[in-house]
Amino acid sequence: MPVVIIAGDEEFELSRRVQHLRVSLVDPNWASVNFLRLDNPPLQEIIDASGTLPFGPGNKVVLIDRCELFTKKRTKGGDDAGRSESDSKSKDKEKLLDELEKSLATVAENTYVIFACPFNLDQTLKTTKAVQKHAKIEKFEKQKFYVGSPNGVLSSWCRTEAKSHGATIEDQAITYLLDGTEANLRQIAAEIEKASIHVLPGNHITYQVVVQLSPYHSHVFALADYWLSGKGKEALASAEEILTRQSAMPIIATMQTMISKWILMKSLCEKFNHDLPTPPGVLRRELPMNELVRRVAGELKAKEFMIEKDLKRISKFPLDRLIEKRLDLTRLEDAIKTGMIPESHALQVFLAG
């Protein structure tokens, strides 16, 4: 099928799948004319591009990158953005959707239209319903993972990744990589590739090998504890020690994952406390820690002892402060990627702030 929707919040696997399709479908000698990348374009531009034909031998690939057609976008007020559209705009969009559906139904045999969407697919949207009639859908949704909780899907992924490099990997090494990176597949893939080269001419990756090559993983949690406790001097010293063996980007990525998880957990705790019936004269009631642990663990389908450990870790860190620091880290990441600030300096700024 020449129309493919690749969607999901597992960015690494999604980007790798897009790259594989590009390499396998486009003749490299004709890539300059037969590969077209559009960055979240308007509907009319997609309609026009889907009607193009390959030039010369081989296929034409139209990549609709960072596509937002199949996910809900919300206004500051929390409502779907589409509800605020005028009637005329809404009618125009309906017409364009009809045209898009017709154009995708008649895509040429050697033209491939690939929608790369870094969001989980929303099956309720009109755009999704219109396009999926003519498309193959590939989902790459991020697996829920909590440190200390076994995950068969991710463990299997690690073994497959090692096999792609002609190697096998020890279960304890898999656990170390998953826990140390908070299941960041991009980081894990890099570590497995590095380890597979290190063990040559052998082909078995042991726990000792990954600890030797990736010692910083076991120290990121100590850094996070110092930071949460307000021990800026110790956090900076821990970061400096880690940076002697590893670049800052994997550390920043791990901190992003941790803070996102803590925001979710803290939000759930506030919701559970807010939903408690409050008798007259009582301003606020709070559930005991053991009950919060039970409810949050049930909601996230995680081990209670791991949830308890994290809730105690963030107990004195306000939710709004976590959100603020998550935004700070996102801005610093963007500054790194645009060359405005060195990554090691960005990490130090974050920890000192």
Structure description:
This protein is an alpha/beta fold. The chain contains 16 helices and seven strands. It has helices at residues 11-25, 31-34, 43-50, 87-105, 126-132, 152-164, 171-181, 185-198, 207-213, 217-228, 232-243, 248-274, 289-300, 304-313, 319-337, 343-352, and strands spanning 3-7, 35-39, 60-65, 111-117, 136-139, 168-169, 204-205. The strands form two sheets. The chain has a five-stranded parallel sheet, with helices on both faces. It has a two-stranded parallel ribbon with strand order 6-7. Helix 13 packs across helix 14 (304-313). The longest helix has 27 residues, at 248-274. The protein is globular, with a radius of gyration of 24 Å. It starts with a strand and ends with a helix. The model is unreliable at 74-85 (pLDDT under 50).
What is the arithmetic mean of pLDDT? Answer: 86
Return the structural class: alpha/beta
Beta content: 5-15%
Distance between the termini: 51 Å
**Level of helix content?**
55-70%
Please tally the helical runs, counting DSSP H or I stretches of 4 or more residues.
Answer: 16
Report on the biggest sheet.
Answer: 5 strands, parallel
Give the oligomer, counting copies of the same chain as homo and different chains as hetero. single chain
Radius of gyration: 24 Å
Count of beta strands: 7
Parts with pLDDT < 50 across at least 5 consecutive residues: 74-85
Sum up the overall morphology in one term.
Answer: globular
Largest sheet, spatial ordering of strands:
2-3-4-1-5
Reading the helices and strands in chain order gives EHHEHEHEHEHEHHEHHHHHHHH
